[in-house]
Write a structure and sequence with these properties.
Helices cover 72% and strands 2% of the residues. The longest helix has 34 residues, at 72-105. The protein has 14 helices and 2 strands, in the order αααααααααααααββα.
Length: 262
């Protein structure tokens, strides 16, 4: 005959678990012997192992009691259902692991593959990772709103990276992120953006961009996200307004400029 501690050890549970199963009515509680101790036999070990196995499989304790009292056919059906549920949970956990691995791998969890390729190309220009991450966060929003347009937009962005001015622009912004506010650099960046925006307008690129991204409310949301992400963006937007341009993710000619108002 076994003490409660021995019973628990043989069944691979704690004494506290045994007492819990007693309280739930899952395991009969034997009478005390003449010494005042409860003694358990081999049958109790078998029953406790069954309880432990079902509980570890995620079966609610109320259902455990029902299964222990069922016949072989009912038990087999219940075990088959438990097995199906466990297989489903395993598949879900494997998917979670896959997503976590993607997250650890970098950008591929949150943005389409075309954006990942563009971000890799941007990194290759030597810009700081903080700037790449800012770009990624903006494209998370854009991909959520216009997923079908991402391939074409990324093709355009990759073409832009072939322009030395674009690379210089990113590097200047990267320097600003590293060294902090510098009015000379800020004005250089603003002049470069204004120059490139003017040429893009002459080619009709800005009009085409407006047609493609025609949700003004969403564009305002993306621009607000950018301006709130770093004070340098807000300062650049002010300097761009001085040069007759507004916006950020979609550049447009400003109706009124601060320079004209002076």
């Amino acid at each position: 005959m076994l003490t409660i501690g021995q019973l628990a050890a043989y069944a691979g549970v704690t004494v506290r678990a045994v007492r819990h199963y007693h309280a739930k009515g899952l395991l009969p509680e034997p009478e005390r012997d003449h010494s005042g101790y409860r003694r358990y036999d081999a049958k109790a070990v078998v029953e406790l192992i069954k309880i432990r196995t079902l509980a570890e499989a995620g079966v609610p304790l109320a259902r455990v009691q029902e299964l222990l009292r069922s016949d072989e056919e009912e038990l087999a059906a219940a075990v088959a259902e438990i097995d199906r549920r466990l297989r489903r949970e395993i598949r879900e956990r494997q998917e979670h692991r896959r997503r976590i691995a993607m997250l650890a791998a970098g950008d591929s969890l949150s943005v389409p593959g075309e954006v990942v390729d563009y971000l890799d190309a941007l990194r290759a220009t030597g810009v700081p990772e903080a700037l790449v991450e800012g770009e990624r966060d903006g494209w998370i929003l854009m991909a959520a709103r216009w997923p079908e347009k991402i391939p074409a937009l990324m093709t355009d962005k990759l073409v832009q990276l072939e322009d030395p001015r674009t690379v210089r622009l990113y590097r200047l912004i990267g320097e600003l992120l590293e060294v902090g506010p510098d009015e000379q650099r800020l004005n250089t960046v603003a002049d470069l953006i204004a120059e490139m925006s003017e040429q893009a307008a002459q080619r009709g690129d800005l009009e085409r961009q407006r047609d493609e991204m025609d949700d003004d409310g969403f564009i305002a949301l993306v621009d607000a996200f950018a301006s709130e992400s770093h004070p340098l963006v807000r300062r650049l937007q002010e300097l761009m307004a001085d040069r007759g341009w507004s916006g950020w993710s979609r550049m447009e000619r400003a109706v009124h400029t601060s320079r004209a108002a002076r």
